[in-house]
């Protein structure tokens, strides 16, 4: 919806699974949706649902005040939009437009893209969607955003259709930073899940006998470490009380995981990386402190 209550037109560029899911959700919410994709056939279902297929990226941008971009990375955005802004027939193709880029890249790439968009008269909002495509528009879906507050506020009702919008501030790099940091946790957890499964299956245990139970280890982490507020305070203060799980004790377990992996011929890159954190923390004098002391050897030098 726009601020007037009328569903605002939206353009979606990039029709991978995420782009198609967002387009479908916006159509279902009553928004006039224009789409463009390098492979036009990916738009078939959206067209059947009521979307308009733009013949060119320039036509797609012209169709709406708001364009949502869902591509592999930011370079893909330049590949598509640079010819648009270089077209002498449309010298101000991006003038007054708002671009919301939900592609993955780095915070610095987001900042450079914002400067590029501003140079061409557009407002640029960085976004990071934190749910998979099937969850778009459903309860629990959310996305991080950063960039010009006025542009975000204007289009917040439309972005809310995709998922709960979490605005982080005017710095275009913030949304990408939070997106990457969350995926840092997610990707590492997925790799650890597969590594652990490989470990037990190497010993002849069926994956089905292991996976349903081990998932509770992931879901139980909040109960072990709290809601994060106290942990954040401890990390910021550099306080790591060693009354429970010390770096020495946890490091010994990390070593045992490496040796067990070696015994069964399972890849040791991940457990060795984890063990290295404990080794460095112990070498730095944090052996009797909490496992949280790893933060002191992981964080950037101040």
Strand proportion: 5-15%
Assembly category? single chain
Which blocks of ≥5 consecutive residues have pLDDT under 50?
A: none
The secondary-structure element order is EHEHEHEHEHEEHEHHHHHHH
Morphology call: elongated
Structural class, from secondary structure content?
alpha/beta
Determine the mean pLDDT: 95
The N- and C-terminal alpha carbons lie at a distance of 45 Å
Strand line-up of the largest beta sheet: 3-2-1-4-5-6-7-8
Q: Main sheet? A: 8 strands, mixed
The proportion of residues forming helix, as a percent range, comes to 40-55%
The number of strands is 8
Q: How many individual helices?
A: 13
Work out the radius of gyration.
Answer: 23 Å
Write a concise keyword list for the protein shown above.
302 residues, alpha/beta, eight-stranded mixed β-sheet, 13 helices, 11% strand
Report on this model:
The chain has 302 residues and is an alpha/beta fold. It is 51% helix and 11% strand. It has 13 helices and 8 strands. An 8-stranded mixed sheet has the order 3-2-1-4-5-6-7-8, sandwiched between helices. Strand 4 (66-69), helix 4 and strand 5 (98-101) form a beta-alpha-beta unit. Helix 5 packs antiparallel against helix 7. The longest helix is centred in the middle third of the chain and has 30 residues, at 173-202. The protein is elongated. It starts with 9 loop residues before the first strand and ends with a helix. The mean pLDDT is 95.
């Amino acid at each position: 919806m726009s601020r007037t209550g009328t569903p605002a037109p939206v353009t979606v560029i990039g029709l991978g699974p995420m782009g198609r899911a967002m387009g479908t959700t916006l159509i279902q919410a009553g928004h006039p949706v224009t789409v463009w994709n390098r492979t036009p056939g990916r738009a078939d279902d959206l067209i059947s649902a009521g979307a308009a297929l733009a013949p060119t990226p320039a036509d797609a941008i012209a169709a709406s005040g708001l364009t949502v971009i869902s591509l592999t990375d930011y370079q893909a955005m330049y590949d598509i939009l640079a010819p648009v802004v270089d077209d002498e027939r449309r010298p101000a193709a991006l003038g007054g437009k708002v671009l919301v880029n939900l592609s993955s890249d780095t915070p610095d790439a987001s900042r450079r893209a914002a400067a590029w968009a501003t140079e061409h008269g557009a407002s640029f909002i960085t976004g990071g969607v934190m749910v998979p495509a099937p969850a778009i528009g459903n309860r629990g879906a959310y996305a991080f955003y950063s960039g010009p507050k006025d542009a975000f506020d204007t289009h917040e009702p439309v972005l809310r259709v995709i998922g709960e919008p979490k605005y982080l501030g005017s710095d275009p790099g913030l949304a990408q930073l939070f997106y990457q940091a969350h995926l840092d946790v997610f990707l590492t957890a997925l790799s650890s899940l597969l590594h652990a499964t490989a470990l037990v299956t190497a010993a002849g245990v069926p994956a089905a006998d292991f996976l349903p139970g081990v998932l509770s280890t992931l879901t139980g982490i909040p109960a072990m470490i709290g809601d994060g507020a106290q942990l954040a305070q401890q990390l910021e203060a550099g306080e790591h009380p060693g009354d429970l799980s010390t770096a020495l004790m946890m490091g010994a377990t990390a070593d045992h995981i490496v040796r067990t992996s070696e015994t069964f011929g399972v890849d040791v890159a991940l457990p060795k990386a984890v063990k290295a954190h404990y080794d460095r923390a112990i070498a730095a004098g944090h052996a009797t402190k909490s496992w949280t002391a790893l933060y002191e050897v992981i964080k950037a030098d101040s």
